[in-house]
Amino acid sequence: MTRTSKNLLEGAVTLLAGLALWLFTGDVEVPVVTLTKVGAVLMCVGGAQTAWGVYGAARRSL
To answer: Hey, what's the torsion of the CAs at 8, 55, 22, 37, to 10 degrees?
Structure first.
């Protein structure tokens, strides 16, 4: 597995996990963090990692 495909896969999984947290944990109470905010952060990280994988794939094909 190349680094590019690894970044794409990890980014997509992280993005989807963050989306699930953001959508479905609005009424869950956790003492330390708010799960919807954690979901938003995970979506940002997953999106950035996916974008980095797309950039790497585009650069490699040039």
So the answer is: 120
